[in-house]
Design a protein that fits this description.
Blueprint (H helix, E strand, L loop, with lengths): L1 H19 L2 E6 L2 E6 L3 E7 L2 E6 L2 E6 L3 E7 L5 E2 L4 H4 E4 L2 E4 L3 E7 L4 E7 L4 E3 L7 E6 L2 E6 L1
Parallel strand pairs: 2-7
Antiparallel strand pairs: 1-2, 1-6, 2-14, 3-4, 4-5, 8-9, 9-12, 10-11, 10-13, 13-14
Length: about 150
């Protein structure tokens, strides 16, 4: 009996460690988001959206703008936030903003590339930036943009 309990605990520890390094990565409109698999509770398709329910909240992604959804070994995208898909979007070289606030754009090395105080409905062109990957942050909303 003791041996079975020890084996069960070891199996749980190994499977938890294997899942700890796995992510659900969703790519849409030039942005990517990674969600750690251990917090994913359910993935459903409802009314034209992929709905990912996690222990931290619900994330909805319009199927019409999704490029792909994959399971990855490492987080190669920014962790998703529940309101992220709707408030900050990137398409065809332009950031579309919902809400007011201070918008910051960082290079992947962490250098602040651009900062602006934006208003509801703003569209920010990234044409002046060199090609590459950028982290865009406004308030508690963050996305990764590949230009």
């Amino acid at each position: 009996m003791k041996t079975k309990n020890i084996l069960a605990v070891l199996l749980l520890m190994v499977s938890a460690n294997m899942m700890a390094d796995k992510y659900l990565t969703i790519t849409y409109s030039g942005s990517e988001q990674s969600i750690p698999l251990p917090i994913v509770e359910r993935i459903t398709f409802e009314n034209g959206y992929v709905v990912v329910t996690t222990s931290e909240g619900t994330h909805s992604y319009p199927i019409s703008i999704m490029d792909k959804m994959t399971f990855t070994e490492s987080a190669d995208a920014i962790k998703a936030l529940p309101e992220q898909a709707e408030d900050l979007t990137y398409k065809d070289g332009t950031l579309a903003i919902k809400g007011d606030g201070m918008l910051r754009i960082y290079s992947t090395s962490g250098a602040l590339v651009s900062i602006a105080n934006v208003k509801e409905g703003a569209n920010i062109s990234l044409e002046g930036l060199p090609s590459g990957v950028y982290i865009v942050r406004m308030g508690n909303k963050t996305i990764k943009v590949r230009k």
